[in-house]
Write a structure and sequence with these properties.
Blueprint: E1 2-11, E2 14-23, E3 34-39, H1 46-49, E4 50-52, H2 54-62, E5 66-67, H3 69-77, H4 83-117
Parallel strand pairs: 1-5
Antiparallel strand pairs: 1-2, 2-3, 3-4
């Protein structure tokens, strides 16, 4: 499977990411199939923070490449993927995380209540 994900470059405490098409089994900094752009999280100006070749992104998504969650966020903001479907998936993921947190909190509270009952 082919993924669209970020490869970290840059110095310590100064990250810079390349957005690349890469085989899923390859390591994070492995050899890419194609570079689609870059992301600089330290840039203050939002317009200069990311650079994407949108045409190639659409091509790779069209042939079945799966973007990572972070890259999917970037693509959704630029309307390169179906935003409504993406928002539904994100809402479902948030609900699952909230349910897990609630279950963990209930499990942690159960022993404390058992001690109070004694």
């Amino acid at each position: 499977m082919v993924r669209i994900r970020m490869k970290r470059t840059g110095r310590t405490n100064a990250p810079f990411y390349r957005i690349q098409v890469i085989d899923k089994r390859a390591r994070r900094d492995g050899a890419p199939i194609e570079q689609l752009g870059w992301y600089n999280p330290l840039e203050k100006d939002a317009a200069k923070q990311i650079n994407l070749n949108e045409e190639r992104c659409k091509y790779w998504i069209g042939v079945g490449a799966q973007p990572s969650d972070t890259v999917k966020d970037m693509l959704a903001k630029r309307n390169l993927i179906n935003k409504e479907a993406y928002e539904k998936i994100r809402a479902r993921q948030r609900k699952v995380v909230e349910d897990q947190k609630a279950a963990a909190a209930a499990a942690a509270a159960a022993p404390a209540e058992a001690k109070k009952a004694e």
